[in-house]
Design brief:
Length: 252
């Protein structure tokens, strides 16, 4: 067995996957450029560190459960929804997250609420924050099942340690009283240490109707609106404007 193969075996033994995959190229570069021992060692360790960071981001993105499209680098600035490029770039700096501010994205369906929320969540994950994306339905189901299934309890514990939680489509459907209480308790336990991004097509005044409890709705909004930026999105649905068709265009 040659020395290179022995090094790879040691790397596998010590679970140094980054060095294992990059070793051949690193050796070629070192020989071609007469790299010294210290620089070569630094490159080896740097390669491993970058590999582990990349894997860590992948794991956290998977745990975040983001929608398929969540890259704000692909955001269509031609969408006239009232959010300027400057304000979006300010949101992407995540200073509000460090200050434990909440963001409420409010507006009609198709104005980019979910895409913006998912994109900001993805940005947070990429920058090392514990950030998660859940629909209102997924969150309610988790709270309902956390005392009965391990997976729900694991998700509950995961979200309880989050820096950021996105709740998508909150108040889209009426909520039963016991579920509303569970939602309030969850947010009440976290609102001073966790930021929330809320997307909704309902005005805060309509939340009482969806919860069938004005007192509970007021208490919930009191927590969410404490240190909160409300962003009203407007305009026509992006999906309807750009909907696809199965037919070929007809030439005149």
């Amino acid at each position: 067995m040659d020395k290179k193969q022995m090094i790879k075996q040691y790397c596998q033994q010590f679970k140094l996957g980054g060095i294992t995959h990059a070793l051949d190229q690193l050796i070629i570069q070192a020989e071609a450029n007469a790299i010294g021992y210290l620089d070569y060692t630094l490159r080896l360790l740097g390669t491993e560190a970058a590999h582990r960071e990349q894997n860590d981001v992948k794991k956290r993105l998977k745990a975040a459960q983001l929608p398929r499209s969540s890259d704000l680098g692909l955001y269509d600035y031609s969408l006239d929804n009232g959010l300027s490029k400057t304000r979006l770039n300010q949101l992407r700096e995540l200073n509000w997250l460090d200050q434990v501010y909440n963001i409420i994205l409010m507006g009609p369906s198709g104005t980019g609420k979910t895409f913006l929320a998912a994109g900001l969540c993805a940005d947070a994950v990429q920058k090392g924050y514990k950030a998660y994306f859940r629909t209102m339905e997924e969150l309610i189901n988790m709270l309902k099942m956390k005392d009965f299934t391990r997976s729900a309890m694991a998700d509950y514990k995961r979200l309880s340690k989050a820096s950021l939680i996105v709740i998508d489509d909150i108040m889209l459907f009426p909520v039963e009283k016991n579920q509303a209480v569970s939602l309030f308790n969850f947010i009440n336990n976290l609102y001073e240490k966790t930021s929330f991004i809320i997307t909704t097509n309902k005005k805060p005044t309509e939340w009482a109707t969806m919860l069938n409890d004005e007192v509970l709705a007021t208490a919930l909004l009191d927590r969410l609106l404490y240190q909160c930026e409300i962003i009203n999105l407007s305009g026509k649905s992006y999906r309807l404007k750009n909907r696809k068709t199965i037919f070929e265009p007809i030439e005149n």
